[in-house]
Automatic annotation (TrEMBL), chain A:
Protein name, entry field: Sarcosine oxidase subunit delta
Natural source organism: Nonomuraea endophytica
InterPro entries: SoxD, SoxD_sf
GO-annotated molecular function: sarcosine oxidase activity
Chain segments annotated as coiled-coil in the UniProt record: none
Keyword Oxidoreductase: yes
Biological process per Gene Ontology, one example term: tetrahydrofolate metabolic process
Keywords, alphabetical: Oxidoreductase
The keyword Disulfide bond is assigned to this record: no
EC number(s) per entry: 1.5.3.1
């Protein structure tokens, strides 16, 4: 189980959180099908550092972003 | 004592092949086998960065079934199941394929409706399916707690009698032995690090053991497909997650079918050797770590005890994790890619083992003809742009 550092509550167990996937996906209305597919479905899936969102669902209900390594699971706050 | 006969050679890579398959798991090996058997293409290398069949092929829970809801899925998984039914003979190897029946339990009214609907859809697609009422479930699988006093009572179940399990290692070894006998090079400890292209056509792969020219390149790398696609310069709608499973200590025969439950969320079978094999859902975050969190294991054991109070004192022997590549509609991606001569077979997510022969069959056809096999057409990468998704999330008789 990962210990996730909530910016509001501090370090808490992973099972208090839900995962939000890749961070920084901007809503892009009025685009062609390919760009819309990119917005809806295409996501980075790196083996290494990943910029992602978490939601403190069973806590303060804050959404926040971290950088996490997808092999070691090490986390560091958004730079 | 002499060493038993080796099942395949351990060749050095040649400088060039007609087809290079990336990944020597079940799907890569099946693809190699059917390229040779069905299409006469034998100048083939299967490159494996680890050891043969040491990824998800070694880590899955070996359940085989074809009771998917949608027509496209039922067609490809049923094709696979039919191949399973002849595969031990075809490969001349005992795969311990056991059609002991797969139950998908219903615990609430929505489950019952979904299950009955799926039974009807399956029958229309020529897939064997039955609806069992609660008392029939009890008869079919006496160790399931089908009493009214259960927290989530069993209200019924779908049953696919032709479903079951097989011995995953035997499947990999048998496919490898046959592919090797056709002259296909199975090369381990070689990682693909890049692709060479001329005018958007792949011409070679770069590897940790040098450059290998390739007429065609076929990805069969499961959880690592995104990493390879990134090297080839195109995005994929895949996310790699940990998927954990566990086995108990060895028991006398006690469970002679496969039991799956969405609502309580665990699936359980008993392997030939005697251990209970259990799995459930993914860890939610992206990871290539081949491990997950213990609370996920705890949840699936709690679910197993809810269904099987008789297992309350059974001890866990071992837990492990693999890396599964999950697509947005929980269906695989098979076919061409934006790079000419580079093919993809990925996105099988949490359910690829059952598809091993069917996947290899259609993928080999797709590679050989440069055109998707009819069963693979709906699974093209383009569906995420056209919107023609095959949405098996929640429809596939399992929560992904």
């Amino acid at each position: 189980m990962m210990l996730i550092d909530c910016p509001h509550c501090g370090p808490r167990d992973e099972n208090e959180f839900t995962y939000g996937g890749q961070a920084g996906i901007a809503y892009t209305p009025d685009v062609d099908d390919e760009a819309w597919a990119g917005y809806l479905f295409m996501r980075d899936n790196p083996k290494g550092w990943f910029h992602e969102r978490w939601f403190h669902a069973h806590g303060c209900r804050t959404w926040f972003s971290v950088h996490r390594h997808t092999v070691t699971h090490e986390m560091r706050p958004q730079p | 004592m002499s060493h038993p006969e080796f099942l395949w050679r351990n060749p050095e890579p040649k400088p060039a092949y007609d087809v290079v398959i990336v990944g020597a798991g079940g799907h890569g090996l099946a693809t190699a086998y059917y390229l040779a058997k069905n299409h006469g293409i034998t100048n083939v290398a299967v490159l494996e960065k680890g050891w043969l069949a040491g990824g998800n092929m070694a880590r899955n829970t070996t359940i085989i079934r074809s009771n998917y809801l949608w027509d496209e899925s039922a067609a490809i998984y049923e094709h696979s199941l039919k191949l399973w039914e002849g595969l031990s003979d075809d490969l001349e190897y005992d795969l311990q394929f056991s059609q002991r029946g797969v139950l998908n339990l219903a615990h609430n009214l929505a489950d019952v409706r979904e299950g009955r609907r799926r039974v009807n859809a399956n029958r229309l697609n020529g897939v064997d399916a039955e609806w069992l009422e609660a008392d029939e479930v009890k008869k079919f699988c006496p160790v399931v707690n089908a009493s009214d006093s259960a927290r989530y009572p069993v209200l019924g179940a779908t049953l696919q009698r032709r479903g079951g399990i097989a011995k995953h290692d035997h499947v990999a070894w048998a496919l490898a032995r046959k592919a090797d006998a056709y002259g296909i090079d199975l090369i381990q400890n070689i990682e693909v690090t890049g692709f060479e292209m001329v005018k958007n056509r792949v011409t070679a792969v770069q590897t940790t053991r040098g450059r290998i020219s390739a007429g065609k390149v076929a990805l069969a790398a499961a959880g690592h497909t995104s990493v390879l696609a990134a090297k080839a310069g195109f995005p994929l709608p895949l996310q790699s997650h940990p998927l954990q499973a566990l086995v108990s200590e060895l028991l006398e025969p006690v469970l002679d079918c496969v039991v799956m439950s969405n609502a309580v969320h665990v699936y359980v079978s008993q392997a030939h050797k005697g251990e209970l094999v259990m799995g459930a859902g993914i860890d939610t975050y992206n990871s290539y770590g081949q491990r997950g969190a213990f609370h996920v294991i705890e949840a699936q054991m709690a679910a197993a005890l809810e269904l099987f109070p008789i297992f309350s004192r059974v001890r866990v022997l071992r837990t492990w994790g693999g890396v599964v590549d999950v697509s947005p509609d929980a269906s695989p991606i098979i076919g061409r890619t934006p790079v000419d001569g580079l093919f993809i077979n990925a996105g099988w997510g949490t359910g690829g083992f059952k598809a091993t022969p069917g996947s290899g069959w259609v993928y080999a056809h797709t590679i050989a003809h440069d055109e998707p096999h009819p069963l693979a057409v709906p699974f093209a990468l383009e569906r995420f742009t056209t919107g023609a998704l095959i949405d098996e999330h929640g429809a596939a008789a399992v929560a992904h």
